[in-house]
Structure formats: C-alpha cells, structure tokens
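#lab-general

N.A. 3:47 PM
ok so I finally got the sequence cleaned up, no stray characters, all 224 residues accounted for. can someone with queue access submit it? mine expired

B.Y. 3:52 PM
send it over

N.A. 3:53 PM
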Amino acid sequence: MNKIKIAIVEDQALFRNGINSILKEIEDFEVVGTMENGRRFLDHLDAAGAIPDVILADMNMPELNGFELTAILQKKHPSIKIIVLSVFNQERFILKMVEAGVAGYLTKNCEVEEVVLAIRTVHKTGFYFNEGILRAIRSPSRMKNAQLLSFTSAPVELTEREIEIIQLVCRELTNNEIGKELSLSSRTVDWHRNNILAKIGCKNTAGLVLFAVKNNIFEEEPFK
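B.Y. 4:20 PM
back already:
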C-alpha cells in the first residue's frame, strides 16, 4: 500500500500531538514530521529531503505562519498539498488562503473524520471544500449568467469545453476520468486545465473550484 505522507505544522503542542497520535493509527497514513511553525518545517524539509504529500498547517503561527508558508511552498514545492487548520471561518480568511494556493480549509472544531476525509480527498483530487466553506464563499447577490471574473477581477471568456472540464473537476474526477468522459487524452485534459487556471488567475485545483462555485458554473456540492 502506498501511504499518504503527512506533515503537521502547528504551534500548539497539545493539538499537534493529539492530531499526530490519531493520524498515526490510520492504515493508509504516514506522519513524516511534526513541527511547531513554518520555519521549522522548511528547515526540516531542506535537511531531510523527504517531501510529504499533504501538510496540515495552522494559519496563525510564530516565525512563519500558514499564509507565508503556503506562498513559499507554491514556489519551491508546488506538488505539496496544504490543508489549513484555523479557528476562523470568515469568508475573507478562506478566500485569502485559497487564493494563496491551499487545497483545503478546516476549522479546528471539525470532527476527526472530516480531517481524514479531507486528507484523502486532497491527495486524490487536489482540493477539499466542505459545505460550510462553500456556503461562506457563495454570495447571495450574484446573478446567474453574470460576467465571469478572474481572481484579478478581469473578465473571463470560457469555451464550452472548458466549462465541461471545470464541472467534471468539481465532481472530483481525475484527468484520466475526465478524458474518458469527454473522449480526450489525459494530456489534452491537462492542457485545458492549465489554460483554464491561466485564464482565471488561480494556482491550483482548489482555486478552480472556488471560481466555479462563486460564478455558478457548478451549483451542486462537490462532495457528499
């Protein structure tokens, strides 16, 4: 079994050790490091050379917080998926972190089962937004068929094929699965996805899903 390699970056020792103890008992998980802040994690990463698949990172930490850590990892290790843990559930914090490049955002009062689900989902699809987060990022004043806007507020024009691909991404399909659905090669799907990301001005799948939800391209919940 290929285990999901996880690092925990959290300044509160009790919370950090508790999460570590829980995740170590899960068969398909392997905790490869626990650090108290982003700076220590980067030092560990450079020294050990072991790249985790997923990081659980607190948003507020001394020395190097979750936002700063995400910005650095997006440049140096974009393959690492980051799930932020936070006490805040306000829209401005969620949008800031997703636009920075995180793959998921969980509040610290969530259930352990949701943490496990988020890790597995992020590892498979590249994003995890729960129902509460999706409700937070939806604006009730938005009109259907209004002008699509990128993350830089520039108008966006999407082709029918690009919209199809976005909708399938939101349903958690992989490139191979999307290719089979649309009779395209995986490489062609990947080309379309990269082109979509460039158009809408976001960095990863999580940002793409955020864009789709905010613009009513995908109206159902992306997960059950």
